Amino acid sequence: MKKLSGWRKTALYLTILATILTTFLVTALIISLHVINGGGASIFGETAILSGSCDKVSRANLWIHLAINVIGTGVLGSSNFFMQVLVAPTRHDVDRAHASKRWVEIGVHSIHNFRFLSRRRIFLWALFSLTSIPLHLVFNGSVLESKATNGFVAIMVSETFLNDARFTLPSVTTSSNYTYALNSESTPNKTIRSIKSSINEESWERLEFQDCMRRYNDLEVLMLNHRHVVMVMSNQNNTPSSQWTRANVVKEDNGWDDQDAPNSLWFAGRYNRFKNSRGLITNSTNNNTVLGYYMQLDPDTGAIYMNETKYEPAFRTMKVDYCLSEIFHAPCRLSIVNPLLLIVCIMCISKCLLCSYTLKVRSWSTEEPLMTVGDAISSFIAKPDTCTKGICTLDAEDLHMKLDPERALGSSRPWKKKQVLAGNAVNPGIWILSYMLIGSLLVLGGLLLAPALQTQSLRESRFAHHQKNADVNDAGLKSASLLGLTMISNTPQLLLSLCYMTLNGLITRMLAELEWASYAISFKALRVTNPRGDQRSTYRLQLPYRWSIPLLAISSILHWVYSNCFYLSNYECKWFHAVPGNGNKRLDSSIDNSY
């Protein structure tokens, strides 16, 4: 186990951890495809793993996404460890840098070292980076919560409909010959009979007309907790509903067998509530056909104006008095998105292979990498560097990004004690880049928050994938694919990880400087990869666990919180004894398909 001492042992443990997490994900994909729901799911489709009340599904989704972000943090944390291992220079790399009057960084994850690394190590580092990007963009979308939106039937009836008055399909205002509607076992008949039989139950609530229109006439309001609506209407001329017969209402005789039979059903139509309402008629002043007849519903007053050429004078002006709305909570669903989970599995398998190969290459190489400050000190004590010989007072200010002792010092000089801050160990360019990355994340957060607050207040919003949260409505997103929407919603996750790596790098550089300075304050054994004598072994690279573990925990929590703030919502239209009809349209502009 000599070759697996120090950081190598940690690298082995992280490789095993990444392999275990990857095995779990691959097993989940196999179960999704071949076990759940009897198997047979498509690799390009979805597999439902939970269905029920939206609150129950939302809670499950909350904890599943926490697990996703913990797994992602474990895999990406292992990946970052090996990326730092790859950029750690050997003594040969340091000598090459010094010979060309350049410098390298030791104990930190620095791309500044690239110019002195082998092509193979740079290639492996790039593969680690590239396999991380899909994980950030699609991992949180591999489990998708689908919210249901109810399709509903809107019927206009007389008050007597609620008291067992006779009704038939087609409705009294319909002239076309709907043969399927005449069948008592047809879907339209079953639906309206179900409405009529349950109308006095607690599942129905009374609404004033304006409240009714706000609930049912807004294309952007999904029907999550309500379904059918009964609009109770009356004749402005006080004509009793017992006279609602085809012979009395419609001027033309279309040969119906029940021309003289009373019918308490004035109109019936079906409506959808999807998130795609472009190109629909929304002007309530337009005349809209009711299968050859004309009527207009005024969304402000509830008045219905019938076409004078088609309807008898006594029925040309009707009015909706109030509505009865059915309370119905549509079931939600939690699904595994198989193609996205497949992408995650491929990336994780790739990372496991890269971790194993990197461990082999760096552990069994002919030259030891300088992983820690102690490794560098030990190496330079054993073999002094000729390029920096005799300039013990050399510091970062003398380098000016290029090692030139003759120009910087020229001759020996006295040591001057001065008070410095740990932050001085960080190059100004890195500080600027760090501020830019973290600042851009804060700006992006503000840009997302500002329009969200205009749509919904903080008090009204809910944490997690709650159905009450407002949606982002943008015309450009309506035609995007599931993969495209997932990547768009998770793009800030990538920026969040870059900010974590930036903060990690800042703290690592400052702690490396403190460790370097600590050797000048008091006697202290070197922390090295392969200890000799009183030297200390190290299981970490540079960042102490008291720093690295909280940073990883904070990163995981931030990723989880973000995944519950800006996410992809999937809506499915649920039909229960539905009837063909009006699709995704407004009530006041789509009375164009009745029975």
Can you offer a commentary on this structure?
Residues 7-162 form the DUF6536 domain. InterPro entries: DUF6536. It comes from Fusarium oxysporum NRRL 32931. By secondary structure, the chain is of the alpha+beta class. The chain has a domain at 149-333 and 574-589. The chain contains 15 helices and 14 strands. Strands 3, 4, 5, 6, 7, 8, 9 and 10 form an eight-stranded mixed β-sheet that branches. A four-stranded mixed β-sheet has the order 1-11-2-14. A two-stranded parallel ribbon has the order 12-13. A hairpin with a 2-residue loop joins strand 7 (288-290) and strand 8. Helix 1 packs antiparallel against helix 9, helix 2 (54-87) crosses helix 15 and helix 14 (482-518) runs antiparallel to helix 15. The radius of gyration is 36 Å and the shape is elongated.
Please identify the structural class as seen in this structure: alpha+beta
Largest sheet: 8 strands, mixed
N- and C-termini, Cα separation: 82 Å
Order of helices and strands: HEHHHEEHHEHEHEEEEEEHHHHHHEEHE
What are the SSEs and their pairings?
Elements: H1 7-34, E1 46-52, H2 54-87, H3 91-99, H4 119-138, E2 143-150, E3 152-157, H5 179-182, H6 187-198, E4 204-207, H7 209-216, E5 226-235, H8 246-249, E6 265-271, E7 288-290, E8 293-297, E9 303-306, E10 317-327, E11 332-337, H9 338-363, H10 373-382, H11 396-399, H12 405-408, H13 428-455, H14 482-518, E12 527-528, E13 536-537, H15 545-563, E14 570-574
Parallel strand pairs: 2-14, 3-5, 12-13
Antiparallel strand pairs: 1-11, 2-11, 3-6, 4-10, 5-10, 7-8, 8-9, 9-10
Helix pairs in contact: 1-2, 1-9, 2-4, 2-9, 2-15, 4-9, 4-14, 13-14, 14-15
